[in-house]
Amino acid sequence: MNAPAGGGEERPTFVPVGENRDTVPTHPMISPHSERSAWKSERLESGPAGERKPNGPPPPTGPPAWDGPPPAGAAPVERTPLERLRSIVDRLSIRWRLTITYAVLFFAAGALLLAVIYLMVGWALYAKWPEFPLLNLDELVRPEVAADIKRQWYWQQHVAITGAQRELLARSLLALLGVGILAVIIGYIVADRALKPIQQMTATARKLSGSTLAHERIDLKGPDDELKELADTFDAMLTRLNVAFDTQRRFVANASHELRTPLTINRTVLEIALGDPEASGDLKALGRTLLEVNARNERLIEGLLLLARSERELSVRKPVDMKDVAETVVDQLAARAEEAGVTVISELRGAETVGDPVLLERCVANLVENAIKHNLSDSGRLWVRTGMVEGALVVQVANTGSHVPAYEVNSLFEPFRRLNAERVDSDKGAGLGLSIVRAVVRAHGGNVTAVPRDGGGLVVTVRLQPR
Question: What is the pTM of this model?
Answer without folding.
Answer: 0.48
